[in-house]
Amino acid sequence: MPCLVSSLTVRRYLTLFAGVLECLCFAGTIFGWASLVFVLKTKGYFSSHCTNTTGVNSTQVLDCSGQDEQFSLVFTIAGFIFNFLILPNGFLFDHFGTTVARLFGM
C-alpha cells in the first residue's frame, strides 16, 4: 500500500510538471499576443499592407491600419479555433483519457 501512495504522488507531480510545461510552450501565442505583434511588426510581417498617405501640412505619413487589421484577423481566427476545438478535445478526454487529449491538443 505505501508503494501505491508514493506512485500516485510521483504521478501527480509529473502531471503538474507536464501541464506547466505545456502552458509555457503553447499558451504564449494567445496570452502574449501584444508582445508578439510588436516583434512581428519590427520583422516586417504584413508590411505590404502599409501605405504612404499625405498628412497635415503635406507631410508623408505611413498608414499601417491594414497591417493592424491583418494581425487582428490572425488573432481572431486563432482564438476561434482554440475555443472551437475544446469540444472535440473534451470528447477525447472523456473517452480515451488524458494522454490522447494532450497529444491532440498539441
Concise description?
The protein is mainly α and 106 residues long. It has helices spanning 2-26, 28-31, 33-43, 65-84, 86-96, 98-105; strands spanning 51-54, 60-63. The protein has six helices and two strands, in the order H-H-H-E-E-H-H-H.
Describe what you observe in this structure.
Keywords: Membrane, Transmembrane, Transmembrane helix. The chain crosses the membrane at residues 12-39, 71-93. It comes from Zoarces viviparus. The chain has 106 residues and is mainly alpha-helical. It has a domain at 32-105. Helix content is 75%, strand content 8%. It has six helices and two strands; from the N terminus they run H-H-H-E-E-H-H-H. The chain has a two-stranded antiparallel ribbon with strand order 1-2. A hairpin with a 5-residue loop joins strand 1 and strand 2. Helix 5 runs antiparallel to helix 6 (98-105). It starts with a helix and ends with a helix.
Total strand segments: 2
Number of helices: 6
Distance between the termini: 35 Å
Q: Which structural class fits the helix and strand makeup? A: mainly alpha
What composes the largest sheet?
2 strands, antiparallel
Mean pLDDT: 82
Order of strands, main sheet, comes to: 1-2
Strand fraction equals: 5-15%
Helix content range: over 70%
The helix-strand sequence is HHHEEHHH
**Rg, please?**
22 Å
Shape: elongated
Spans with pLDDT under 50 lasting ≥5 residues? none
